[in-house]
Amino acid sequence: MRIPARFVQVIAVAALPLALAACSPSSSDSGASAGKPQAKNLNAGLMTGTQLKKALAPASVFPSNLSVVPDGFSDSGDEFASPAGRDTAKPDCTKFENTTWLDVSGFKGGVSFAQGEYANKDETEEMVQELDVFQGTTGETVMRQIRAAAGACATFTDLNDHSKVKLSGSTTSGLGDDAYTMTMTSGHWENGTTLVAARVGNAVVTVTSTAGKDNGAANAAKLAGHLVDSLKAAGAKG
């Protein structure tokens, strides 16, 4: 249920130190470039994947009938990935049904990330948390594009049972610097899904919940609130 691109990103980040070592300049090259101005470090002050992992919500935040999904946790470690450009193609509405769905914005992820998943035994109820950190004002763009994708996907077809899925969203006040909550329902589903996106400085929180008879809404709000508070406490760069 993971999005493969996130794991490719982890591997690429892990390989970065080796690549940098192989490309390190000789002492003569270093001397020649010593007088050149240093490029601004756009990752300065941003949280790493290791730090974001510590900001994820603990088991106590989730309903007691949910437990850790063994392969549902990953992060980008201590290195930052190169920022990827945004895919400007028409949104793929079915991505809202993925375990992690931030890429509906056109961005595959941030320069660092951490994610985790909890579910019941038969996986009829699940909750997913993801934290992504972006350079500059990209986080604001991500939030705008999530809203735009939601507006373009008010109705779409489920890939599994080909039923009609309805998606509605609204701005959520009092949650981080910006927040947007969406609900997905279908006449073929026993319960709907609640999705929450929230921004805290350069970090974007994304939450999925199908836990609870209210389309997962209460548990989604609780989890998103905890993650926002956790990022604030960790000093997420604003």
UniProtKB/TrEMBL annotation:
Domain of life according to the entry: Bacteria
Signal peptide: 1-21
Keywords: Signal
PROSITE patterns per UniProt: PROKAR_LIPOPROTEIN
Name used for this protein in its record: Sensor domain-containing protein
Source species taxonomy: Bacteria, Bacillati, Actinomycetota, Actinomycetes, Kitasatosporales
